[in-house]
Amino acid sequence: MAQVMDRSKTAIDFNATAKTLAESFSGKAQEHDNNDKFVAENYAELKSAGLICAAVPAELGGQGASVRTLCEVLSIISAACGSTGLALAMHTHQVAIPAWRWHHQEPARPMVEPLLRRIAAEKLVLLSSGGSDWIGGSGKADRVDGGYKITARKVFSSGAPAGDILMTSAIFEENGEKTVLHFGAPMAAPEVTVLDTWHTMGMRGTGSHDVQIDGLFIADDKIPLQRKAGEWHPAFQMIATIAFPLIYAVYLGVAQSARDIAIDIAGMKPISHRAQAIAGRMENALVAARLAHNFMIEAAERNAPSANTVNDVMIGRRLVEENTIRTVELAMELAGGASFYRRTELERRFRDIQAARYHPLQKEVQAEYAGAMALGHPIAEIY
């Protein structure tokens, strides 16, 4: 197996690049939030800076960034604009997954290399339909000559207005057996439509609209994976291991920025033991989130996706969720009444951080999965 190489030191300075972009994105974030406006102009800057192809191996024309480096970038950007960070994370994990396969699964190289080269050369934006297409799958695939006709409605497709390819799936049913077919749907196809549905409490600029697919033909040779519906597959162990550290880096960045805003506001007030205690609890929660997130990254860095790795990642995911939300709540409390004003930008962080609740595995399912693992019970259908 090839070793993962982080070539960020010889390509671009990711930390400095992310900070420069964050300064630009910060000034526009409130407008996007106020108007449910997709962060379209930020994508142009992300492409120009090389971050759209950051996860592509350097040998294929990308930046060769590791999962850890990508997480740092996503946290910095999300501190300025959670919507840009989350939309970028959804693209980034769809690139990081085939990149991982290129590094670690040599037989998969001919399958994933053409896409990775296209992302680097054409700056393609990949969309994830993960909100629709977790392990149960969704949508319908009807068998036709040479392939399938797809009918589906995919929700939570972050970055939809800027997307080039929707990485998605549909269910083919035959003789009572359900098979999930995975494929990429070209967003420019006439059978694919972005619906204006993303009007939400938080993360308003992500453009996570529904995508409607009506009779799109997918040829047999464009379906790289088929799996049984409704149970864990090794491919999903890999997806969960790589994707969730990247996604939850976003919430760590949102929490960090809320903490910083609250500290600045509290610093202008008289010294108070109560404020010190609130600030201390906020610091505890933020450090707990950082530690849990690092635990997720370390699980990914083992480069050995399995049920155990998924368990570690999902335990970390739950702890990051809990503690980032708690951090922002305490930031609101520390800032006091000032936090209620939009101009302080704390209330936006409070709304954005709520999205941490809704990615798989949500808390009750995660607890069931972890408990089954501890007890030695089957986990194949816990998702």
UniProtKB/TrEMBL annotation:
Q: Per its UniProt record, what Pfam families does this chain match?
A: Acyl-CoA_dh_2, Acyl-CoA_dh_N
Domain of life, source organism = Bacteria
Is Oxidoreductase among this UniProt entry's keywords? yes
Q: Which UniProt keywords apply?
A: Oxidoreductase
Q: What is an example of a GO molecular function annotated in this UniProt entry?
A: acyl-CoA dehydrogenase activity
The UniProt record lists the Acyl-CoA dehydrogenase C-terminal domain at: 248-360
- Report the residue ranges that make up the Acyl-CoA dehydrogenase/oxidase N-terminal domain in this protein: 18-102
InterPro entries (UniProt xref)? Acyl-CoA_DH_C, Acyl-CoA_Oxase/DH_mid-dom_sf, AcylCo_DH-like_C, AcylCoA_DH/ox_N, AcylCoA_DH/ox_N_sf, AcylCoA_DH/oxidase_NM_dom_sf
Name of the protein in its database record = Short-chain acyl-CoA dehydrogenase
Q: Which organism is it from?
A: Maritalea myrionectae
